[in-house]
Amino acid sequence: MNEDPVAAAITSRRSIRAFLPTPVPRETVERLLDIAARAPSGTNMQPWRGYALAGEPLRRLSEALVAEALAGTPVDSEYRYYPDAFFEPYLARRRKVGWDMYGLLGIARGEAEKMKRQHAKNFDFFGAPVGIVFTIDRRLEIGSWLDYGIFLGNVMTAARGMGLDTCPQAAFAPHHRTIRAHLPIPENEVVVCGMALGHADPEAPVNTLVTDRVPARDFCAFLGWDGA
């Protein structure tokens, strides 16, 4: 029996970190975002905003952000993504995915400069032909951020359904000042994340990374079935 196409799109999604230069038409990107915008949101507020870039605008922004990252220029995010100190089981999961990825790239522990250069590739959208910067009105509350997460999940799932790949990138948030210098983002909007969009490079070792997932029985209590 063939796998359900929605399940196939979800389970085949990975964070791709090397893209082919194959262009993606604007019509395709717009259709993708139209589909994703069917995400639910509290009282249909639809809190998502986006700035999709290709060609020269993408190149200019990428060059500025890569230069800033490599220079080690101090930056600051407008929101907190991670806790100040990691704890289990999250610390172990974070470490494993990091070392699994660096292992595929041939980067050993302690090779700080190589790690820095790999991180800087975020800001070139990993070579993707399309980069999207997502923002939200800073006056909105946590409920709208929850809605935003559903929307972003829709973007990535719909992309797989269209034969495209993505990488969601919170790394963009601390660089909001440089991003604002290149994009018409008003002050009342917070940079949530960036997202690379395109076709995965099948020859790139980093794209063979498959991250672990905890099974539902380990994170969900099932009540009301036989034996429960």
From TrEMBL:
Ranges for domain Nitroreductase: 10-199
Annotated protein name in UniProt: Nitroreductase
Origin superkingdom: Bacteria
TM region(s), chain numbering: none
Species assigned in the record: Neoroseomonas oryzicola
Keywords of the record: Flavoprotein, FMN, Oxidoreductase
Gene Ontology MF, one: oxidoreductase activity
SUPFAM superfamilies reported in the protein's UniProt record: FMN-dependent nitroreductase-like
Required cofactor names: FMN
UniProt similarity note: Belongs to the nitroreductase family.
